[in-house]
């Protein structure tokens, strides 16, 4: 009779770490639809923000990250100072706008901007700033 060999791997989205390991830990983020989109070497809450739209600034030279969002359309946005061209990323599952860059060659520019409230650390749960009331 042949020998049966099996193995199993358990995967979890529970990525809580001890306070000592916080600096070296990878942080995982999901879309509001629960799709895995970003793993990064920093907590998004401590990264700087843009004054224009409060987007999270991720340095393409100082940070190590993988963004699995798909490239989307290019949009020209009117700002107080003039116009800004955005090369957008969206969720491959629900098409929600997640991030944008200001250069055509993806990840070759200085920054990637993550939209406020677009990502969550807890799969299946929206962050508090994801839903905004219109005044």
UniProtKB/TrEMBL annotation:
One GO CC annotation: cytoplasm
Biological process per Gene Ontology, one example term: endoplasmic reticulum membrane organization
Annotated Pfam families: STEEP1
Sequence ranges assigned to domain STEEP1 in this UniProt record: 21-127
Domain of life, per lineage: Eukaryota
Family from the record: Belongs to the STEEP1 family.
Name the record gives this protein: STEEP1 domain-containing protein
Lineage: Eukaryota, Fungi, Fungi incertae sedis, Mucoromycota, Mucoromycotina
